[in-house]
Amino acid sequence: MTVCGLTAVATGRLLAGAPPTAPQDVGDVPAGVSRAAADRAATTSPPVLVRGPRGLHAPVVPVASRPDGSLDLPRDARTAGWWPLGAGTGAAHGTLLIAGHVDTRQDGLGPFAALHGLPMGSRIAVTGADGTVRAYRVAARRTYRQERLPRDLFASDGTHRLALVTCAAPYDRTEGRYLRNLVLYATPAGAPAP
């Protein structure tokens, strides 16, 4: 599975200019697999909104994968996609994976461009369809080649965490796509972010 078109399958719509170079990897990535899927909480809800500092504010819709394994993200850079085969909001286990375009030709920079500048410890709020707001704190940042995203990003089991994913430089003008993904890992933080 790849993300950010997520082999940047929004390639025809990406801006010619890339966002700032992806920041350095920092923090300890929260474990993604440690418990059986059968232990998951039954009271989960689909995420409908993600927000945080520096302009991160996007509605969230469920997305599926394309035949090539990439996520079929919404065309609008202002809307993020949720991988429903992972965790939902309120889940006790699994990765709540939300991905968005860093930019598109039509919309310019999207809210997920903010991921490139979020410092460790930033608070992220995810609102579920049931109206419950869950807070997370950014614990780690990693960049991966798109074809080498960790499989546990797509897990419905393991320790609960949030993974926010977008495209990262370099941008291949010949192929019309970004070559890397930026992933921010966040852990539950208690009270909702402001």
From TrEMBL:
Q: What is the top-level taxon of the source organism?
A: Bacteria
Q: Which Gene3D superfamilies match?
A: Sortase
InterPro entries assigned to the protein according to its UniProt record, in alphabetical order: Sortase, Sortase_dom-sf, Sortase_F
Q: Which Pfam families match?
A: Sortase
Query: Which of UniProt's keywords are assigned here?
Result: Hydrolase
Q: What is this protein called?
A: Class F sortase
